[in-house]
Amino acid sequence: MVPLPEQAGCKPKLQLIEYDAHSFQEREIELADLEALHSSRVSWINVGGLGDVEALQKLGEHFRIHPLALEDVFNTGQRPHIDEYEQQLFIVLQMAYEETEGELVFEQVSLVLCDHYVITIQEDAATDVFEPVRKRLREGLGHLRFLRSDYLAYTLIDAVIDQFFPLSEALGDSIEDMEEDVLTTPTRDKMQQIHEFRHALAQLRRAVWPARDVLTRLLRDESGLIAEKTKPFLRDCLDHVLAIVDLLETYRDITTSLMDLYLSSLSMRTNEIMRVLTIVSSIFIPLTFIAGLYGVNFANMPELHLKFGYPVVLVIMLAVAVGMILFFKRKTCDSVYVTLFRLFAIFAFFCGYSSFAAARNVVFAGSMLIVRC
């Protein structure tokens, strides 16, 4: 058994809660205080931290926790499962919560259920999801103080499972908010966010889905540690697990649809760009032919010596371009027509001050800018 590297040498924090129908006591204890536990009351010992192997071994020896169970305590990151030992049930769950930066954090919680006590062992003593359970015990709310340790174990398991509801719903709200952004601005950042959402959904599902087998095993318990009156509550907790899994599956399908929508939007924008550039190229094919024809260096070309030869050629080119634009207007949408009109205006402006080739280059550069905008 090896302690967690970031907690090596740190003593675990032990918190003891003892209660029955008429009394309640909560305090922090040391290992030596375990000898004074009241067997007539239900005891909940919460251990925070895995930095001291020797201390947890002494705890295991005192409560006769199986060595294989102690190995699973230190082997963090396991999938939820349940093992039955002599007069004990050992349960491993994954607890999830959200840090201030919005990052999901997963922590292993080990639970040992015996006849009169429950032991929970956490990786970190600073954060858990058990505070609502402590509040119910302090204030005597519900049936918790009137039932056995198996009901306490159910309450702790239910607290771990129910924490997945707000995390899943918050993630789902973020996914739904992204749908419109993906349609309007399909950038690479959006695709990266979609992949992050899918990764978070996979982590949540991997943490909660195996809990179904844990609860099913508890419902079929034959050790006598689970009372019949507790099993309906466990069945309700199992329904919560299935509801969370269904919710995660729905959000995963939405992210798949978002990826398809992203690719479709990107393809549509690419097609729009290619359509505009194709039309621009089609318009410049006859113009390039005219410019190339009168750019050859033959000596016997009468048109080159006409007084109004240059304006006539410009008028012919203008007529050809306008005719093709009007033709494409009938075949394409108005936005493409407006874009072509702007490009031709740029062409006409630069033709008065530069060569035809320079004007053509300016128009092609302008077409890329206009389409991208």
Compact overview of the structure:
This protein has about 375 residues and is of the alpha+beta class.
Q: Would you kindly provide a written description of the structure presented here, covering whatever features stand out?
A:
The protein is an alpha+beta fold and 373 residues long. Among the domains are: 1-146, CorA soluble domain-like (Beta Polymerase, domain 2, 2-Layer Sandwich), CATH 3.30.460.20; 270-372, Magnesium transport protein CorA, transmembrane region (Methane Monooxygenase Hydroxylase, Chain G, domain 1, Up-down Bundle), CATH 1.20.58.340. It has 11 helices and 7 strands. A hairpin with a 2-residue loop joins strand 4 (81-85) and strand 5. Helix 6 packs antiparallel against helix 8 (231-293), helix 7 (211-219) runs antiparallel to helix 8 (231-293) and helix 8 (231-293) packs antiparallel against helix 11. The chain starts with 12 loop residues before the first strand and ends with a helix. The model is unreliable at 352-356 and 365-373 (pLDDT under 50).
Largest beta-sheet characterization: 7 strands, mixed
- In terms of quaternary structure, the protein is single chain
Shape, per Cα inertia axes: rod-shaped
Sequence of secondary-structure elements: EEEHHEEEEHHHHHHHHH
Could you give the count of β-strands?
A: 7
Classify the fold: give the CATH topology of the domain at 1-146. Beta Polymerase, domain 2
Determine the number of helices (DSSP H or I, runs of at least 4 residues).
11
Instruction: Tell me the CATH superfamily of the domain at 1-146.
Output: CorA soluble domain-like
Radius of gyration (Å): 37 Å
Round the mean pLDDT to the nearest integer and report it.
80
By secondary-structure content and strand pairing, the structural class works out as alpha+beta
The fraction of residues in strands falls at 5-15%
- The low-pLDDT segments are 352-356, 365-373
Residue share in helices? 55-70%
Assigned CATH architecture of the domain at 1-146? 2-Layer Sandwich
Please list the strands of the largest sheet in the order they lie side by side: 2-1-3-7-6-5-4
- CATH class of the domain at 1-146 equals Alpha Beta
End-to-end Cα distance, whole Å, is: 61 Å
